[in-house]
Amino acid sequence: MIRRFRAALAALDPFILLMLGLVALASVLPVRGQGAVIAGYGANGLIVLLFFLHGAKLSRAAIVAGFGNFRLHAAVLATTFVVFPLIGLSLQALLTGAVAPGILSGILFLCLLPSTVQSSIAFTAIARGNVAAAVCSASLSNLAGIVLTPLLVALLMQQSAGVSTSSVVRIVGQLLLPFVAGHLARPLIGGAIARHKLLVGRVDRLSILAVVYTAFSASVIEGLWTKVDLADLALVMVLCAAILAFVLWLTWWVSGKLGLAREDRVVMLFCGSKKSLASGVPMASALFPPAVLGPVMLPLMLFHQLQLITCATIAGAMKEEAETADGGNPTAVVSPKARNSC
After folding, report:
1. Who wins on pLDDT, 309 or 77?
2. In this predicted model, what pLDDT tens digit does every residue of 63-119 receive, in sequence order?
3. What are the structural domains of the chain?
């Protein structure tokens, strides 16, 4: 247990620490005036480039193949876009008046986001799950999220968080159109993207950092830290932990009731319980006004780090369990059924 806990601590992402550092910097040195305008244009440009590259990276074959295991992928999508939103709405109804409105909006927004891609696949591989199916489920979730998340935000958050119809339209131009353009350009640039994966990763992180700094600068100028205190932050951490624990339990229980193979249950556990920081930050910047953007992003930033630590611990434990069951063979072959379930 101690060894697994140390491994989980090692999963602390330096990128998250850098983001928190930028939050602190924005709190004492927010960008203002013309500098804020220029920084905003720069952040928006990086976001457009990011989604163009993501579109070029996504294989059309993976999208088509993703419909092969309908039960698994439908269960993951239902958890991501039905169960999570119901949790967010329930918490909003229970905690209205007891928690800062911006924080509650952030919790609900977190629950409307798609799943992660890279970490979901990585944890599935560590836990000896069906990696091919994880690639399909995570990719389908992100693809669906570009359309479903803005629609759910418009439907559920228009009154509570100041989301306007124009902001939903803006996300089409800033995120969806570049994504489609990148995917259509894949035959021309897909090979170059595959050879320069590091470039996509750097654009990914740079765009998030730019949005975090500009968003929190605007929120600080609007009085963020007079509306959100340490007690609110502690409550957010507790709520994020409770949401994650419940969904982890639910996905494992439901996958068992569906009669899925162990390899596919692992996919549902990791793909169905996680939320994407890489998609969430750009979407938040396009959907929400600057005055509420900072507190809206706080739950997502905390949940992201919490899910990495928790899932790293679970994946390590499942790997040990699987290797013990296979007689200590770390390269045991996945069943044909699991191999073909993408």
Report:
1. 77
2. 565 556 788 999 999 999 999 999 999 999 998 888 888 888 899 999 999 998 778
3. 2-318 (1.20.1530.20)
Length of the chain: 342
**Between the CA of residue 179 and those of 34, 56, 143, 184, what are the distances in Å?**
29, 7, 9, 9
Longest Cα–Cα distance of the chain, Å, equals 64
The residue type at 26: A
Residue whose pair of structure tokens reads 């992100």 in the numeric block: 142
Task: Give the pair of three-digit tokens for residue 165.
Answer: 């119809």
pTM for the model: 0.78
DSSP letter for 273, please: S
Q: Are 305 and 189 in contact (CB under 8 A)?
A: no
pLDDT, greater one: 162 or 53: 53
Alpha carbon distance 300, 304 (integer Å): 6
d(CA 308, CA 125): 14
State the angle between helix axes of 118-126 and 262-272 in degrees (0 to 180), rounded to the nearest 10: 150
Q: Who's near 80: CB < 8 A, 6+ residues apart?
A: 114, 115, 141, 145, 272
Three-class SS state of 117: coil
First to last CA, the chain: 33
How far apart, in whole angstroms, are the C-alpha atoms of residue 1 and residue 23?
33
CB 269 within 8 A of CB 251: yes
Task: Report whether 242 contacts 251 (CB < 8 A).
Answer: no
Question: pLDDT of 187-240, one tens digit each?
Answer: 888 888 878 777 777 777 787 788 778 877 877 887 777 777 788 888 899 999
Closest Cα to residue 220, out of 163, 305, 297, 300?
297
CB-CB contact of 124 with 271 (8 Å): yes
